[in-house]
Each structure stands twice: as C-alpha cells, then as structure tokens.
C-alpha cells in the first residue's frame, strides 16, 4: 500500500512540471538533463517550469516518504525534495520511459511525456533513484556539541554512541582519540566555529558531547538535536533531584553542532551548523557532575534500552519538552513542563487521570498527588480559561499559600523525577 501511494504522489509531482512556460508558474530550473557518461553528460539542456501546485505536491510526497519509509534514508524533508528533483533530472531522458519530448511539439507536462503504460514503472524508477542518491550522501560522522559550564568525569555510553568529556580532561580526550571515537583535531576545529570555546580556555570550564552516527548532513543535525536534548534533560534532572533548586537563565548564544566526517586514511573534514541553544546558563556559571551522577546517567540509559518503541518515543518527547522548558522561564517553562508530563504519562481523552496515575507510581512523597491537582487546574486556566499569565490565575496564589512553594519550581522537580523514574514507571 505504501509503495502504491508513493507512486501516486510521485506522478502528482510530474503533473506539476511543465515543459513549456505556462501562464502562471512559481519558478523554473535550467539544467543539464540525463545521466553522466564516460565522456561527460549524455544529455541536453532543458528548462522546466513549476506550476503553483508543485510545492504542495512535492511536500506531500516528502512528508509521506518520511512517515512511511522511516527505516530508510528518507528522513529529512528538504533532503527528500532535493533527491526527488535530482532523480527526475536523471531519468527524464530515459528512452524506455519517455517519448522524445524535448523537441517540438512538446507535451504539456512531464507526466504527459511518459510513454503509455509506463507511469508506474517511471514512479518506481524515480523512487529507487532518489533512495540511491541519498544513500550516496550517507557518511559516518562524529558530531560534537559543546556544553558550556559543564564539568564531568568521562561518561561513555557505547550502546548509544554517546560520550561526554570535559574540555580540560586531556587524558580522557586522548583515550577517546586513540579508540577512534573522537576526531584528532576536534577541540581546535570546534573553537573555530564557536566563540564560546575561546572564553573557556582559561578555566577549562565546559564539556564536549560526542555522538557517533551515520546519515546525511541534515539528518545528522535532526537526529543529534533529539539526542542532545534528551542527554541535557537527563543530566539536569540528575542534578535537580539532588538539590533544592537550580537557578538558571536563558542563554542568548546559539549552539553549534560540528560534524566530522571520516574520509579514510586519517583524513577528516568538518562542517558546522548553528542550532538552538540546548542548555541553559546556571547563575553560578558552573554545572558539576559527580562520579555518582555520572554513574546514574549511565544506569538510566542502560535501563531505558529495555523499553518498547512506543515507550522510547514517550521518553524522547518528554525529555525534549523538559529541555525546551529549561531554556525558558515562568509561564512558558510551566507549559513545556506540563507537556513533558503529558508526553511521559498522558493518554488522549483522559489527560488528567492518566498523568495522575503516573504521578502516583513515582512513590516519591512531597504531596505530589495533591500538588498535581492544582497544577492541572492552573494548566486549564492557561490553556482554556483565557489567562495569559500564571499570576492572573486564582489558583496560583492558592498554590503558593497552601504549599509554600512555586508551581513552576515544583513542576520542574516533578518532571525531573518522572523522567528519571520512567524506565520503571513507563505506561504499558
């Protein structure tokens, strides 16, 4: 069914590619069509015009491939679109699929130029070519993200291909490099891309999160975003449950993800991407992980490996919303924290009762069941009651007076406990 649907969507794209300039178009491309041969391109110069419906058609195709071919290389929308367009330009002169449409009189669209009875074969060929194009762009890379202010013992999660090493821990860095896990020149290369690194040279404050992965440039950025958000949420939660509170401020510096591709024979090339800041700044300026916390992080990853795919997706979404909350404050942080609880425990149609079941399973005291009832009422006043700020909600003052605490700080702690307990409390 997926292949048949994909073929239909590809043919819909072909109907939007015009071979002569239409009255209304959203653009055109001028290119050397055909396949490269021994003596260069065996091709001709072509111009295509795109109807106003082209963008919708190719985005629908990209979305469908991303959703239904998730185990393949079809992962990132803009890469899928590029691969489809490149595949079209490669096959468009194949004599077994097309008539000689590039000489007048021309058919109206690329769809009309296909040989009779060959449309399904054509769609199959385009799909295969697009997948082949993306496969050729796959690379094994080490992605490096710098966590300012974080100092930690070496944390190795080989099953997850994740490693955390402090900037000043040269012995650990050398071991990672000798094992082929860390690129030889990554500290120098990262400093070129990020001005933050220059500021840390004096006090050695900061750590590198290294992720060994495979993919295209864009798919690596997307997948690493999830990995980093989860790691930061777990790391922060491990510290948060051991302290009364952590005072953070929203960072204004963009994060930088550097990809090091192994080109063989010890040659590496690096490329950087500016991404959202994924870790807040602590008021103290320093975020220190003890040996005990480091071991707890390793244990958490070991235990979550046993979860089902659905439970792992809940875990990722919950951690991602916690990470988003960490980089916000006040009302926005409160909303993201509630969304994290919903991701971890929520069931559509019975949000309050399902999260409450999850809260009860924590067995951590601190009046969480009673607190959550008021937290849920605050959520409803913000989401449905027309209140723009927590301070405008009558239950906000009631909460502070009754519990002598702040609901934002409490829901932050509740989310930290929930995330760390998730391997044991995950809904079936």
Please provide a brief summary of the model.
This protein has about 425 residues and is of the alpha+beta class. The chain has helices at about 1-15, 55-70, 75-90, 110-115, 120-135, 170-180, 185-195, 195-200, 215-240, 290-305, 310-325, 330-345, 350-360, 370-385, 395-405, 405-425; strands spanning about 15-20, 25-30, 35, 40, 45-50, 140-145, 150, 155, 160-165, 205-215, 250, 255-260, 270-275, 280, 285-290. The relative contact order is 0.09.
Can you tell me about this structure?
The chain is α+β, with helices and mostly antiparallel strands. It folds into 3 domains: 2-136, no CATH class; 139-301, no CATH class; 307-425, no CATH class. 50% of the residues lie in helices and 16% in strands. The chain has helices at residues 2-14, 54-68, 77-91, 110-113, 119-136, 170-178, 186-193, 195-200, 217-240, 291-304, 309-326, 330-345, 351-360, 368-383, 394-403, 407-425; strands at 17-18, 27-32, 35-37, 40-42, 45-50, 139-147, 150-151, 155-157, 162-166, 207-215, 248-249, 255-262, 268-275, 281-282, 287-288. The chain has a 6-stranded antiparallel sheet with strand order 8-9-10-6-12-13, with helices on both faces. It has a 3-stranded antiparallel sheet with strand order 1-5-2, with no helix packed on it. Strands 3-4 form a two-stranded antiparallel sheet. Strand 8 (155-157) and strand 9 (162-166) form a beta hairpin. Helix 1 (2-14) packs antiparallel against helix 2 (54-68), helix 12 (330-345) crosses helix 13 and helix 12 packs parallel to helix 16. The longest helix is centred in the middle third of the chain and has 24 residues, at 217-240. The protein is globular. It starts with a helix and ends with a helix. Residues 197-202 have low confidence and may be disordered. This is Apea-like HEPN domain-containing protein.
